[in-house]
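thought: fold this chain, then report.
action: predict
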Amino acid sequence: MGDPRPERLRRRARQADRQRDAAASSQLLAQSEQASTPALQALLAAASWRLDQTPRSRAGLLNVLAKPDRAILNAHVHSVAFSPDGTTMATGGFDETVRLWDVGTRRQIGEPLTGHTGPGLSVAFSPDGKTLAAAGDETVRLWDIATRRPLGKPLTGHTDTVGSVAFSPDGTTMATGGFDETVRLWDVGTRRQIGEPLTGHTDLVHSVAFSPDGNTLATASYEAVRLWNVRGRQPSGEPLTGPTHSVESVAFSPDGKTVATAGEGETVQLWDARTRRPIGEPLPGHTDQVESVAFSPDGETLATAGHTNVRLFDVRTRRPLGKPLTAHTETVETLVFSPDGGTLATGSLDETVRLWDVRTRMGRPLTGSTGPVSSVVFGPDGKTLTTAGDEDARSWNAGDRRPLGAPLTAHTETVESLALSPDGRTLATGDSEGTVRLWDVAGRHQIGELRPGHTAPAGSMVFSPDGKTLATGGFDDTVRLWDVAGRRQIGEPLAGPSQSMAFTPDGRTLAVADEGTVRLWDVGSRRPVGEPLADNTGLMDSVAFSPDGRTLATGSRDETVRLWDVATRRPIGTPLV
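observation:
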């Protein structure tokens, strides 16, 4: 046998390197939590994760990413609209372009739509989602969404900038409001103007909106809000008068019974559409000009944009819903709800579009933990959430974000990792001393402690698909398999470090990733399956199996993902980048 000392020295050197990386990672994570901008927070959190991929650094990165997603544009955003199915978003910018975005991936679709010679002041999808109308200069352009090509020549007629555009609910008519103080109706099929312009405003027309039945058009300018009979193209009664000040935005409620207006004077006013009288006093809260208003699809919530924040109001009580949504650093110009009402998109002069979860309002942090949150897991039904980070684990109602019972306490060190059995009945927790505990989720009491435990932090764990076996990985360079029912270790530990683990869907094979390699283990015999999977980077450290168990995906620190044939243990094609 050879001298074992060189190998021990190499292992000690690797351990020293890991300790150094861990210290640097912790420092970066702390700096991320104190960073002044979301972008800097994300950069520091990502650097922390790449340097030392622990549950804590992962949780820090996920916490940053859980904040409202944003699409960074290269110019101020003036207008935003969702497609009817909620999968596509259009934005109009001050760079004279219109951009389409995939809402799911947050990526831009194709090249920007160009042609206007002025800012993209207004964009609107047709009700069938096939056509986009965009206004910015003295014209309106119609675009085919599928091909991203113009539909005919621009619509002309206005003698000054077109500031607003809207489709009727049936998609046959389009209304435009211009800085020439006129409103025009258009036949969408022929792309011809219907009759003479609607006149009466004595200032720039900033906003137009159809009632849900398409019979009434509301138009807003600095001096008044006017309602029009669409078929007769005549005013419907006198202009709305009252505490309006200069009006920037107008919107109908989904049932058509209420009109919301907003503008200067820090006011948002609700109106009875039938009587044209104000409903109560203006909504409180804004301290600067209100740029935009939008009703949720169910009509129960009104969103208002004023300066750098957005407020949500209960329409029935006219009271604010929680605190303002704050993250934009310049004026919020526009906002719109997704068709399902779950997401609110806001566009700002800070050159960003932000997507907000309406229910959570920015993913407000859960309160109650006394330390950093290092691990989070949802229950199988998605209704409960369990978090860990201090010396306990806490469960939450994911709907109302309230704690479920008292914290699970027994650990004397920080809980580093969590795993929930597939049936949601058993919770496993691992702490920084290597102790692993099992808990009855329903009864909220400890079932037992798994002994002998790891001699270093238990950083990763996963249940087998049938919930009968638990795999735990420790910083002591061992992976242990446990019989959950008997709470006993199955055989000797598997040798090797672990950053990430995954069972095949049939539970027969365990993949373990760390230090640039992935090892496959036969769970029954606890023997390696062939040689470790390795690439040229030496940086693989995360794993996941396909649902059929035939393909393994590995994630690497070089920002690539590789697919492997599990049977042959060979790479499939080139890395995904």
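thought: worth noting. The domain at 375-571 is CATH 2.130.10.10 (Methylamine Dehydrogenase; Chain H).
final: tokens above.
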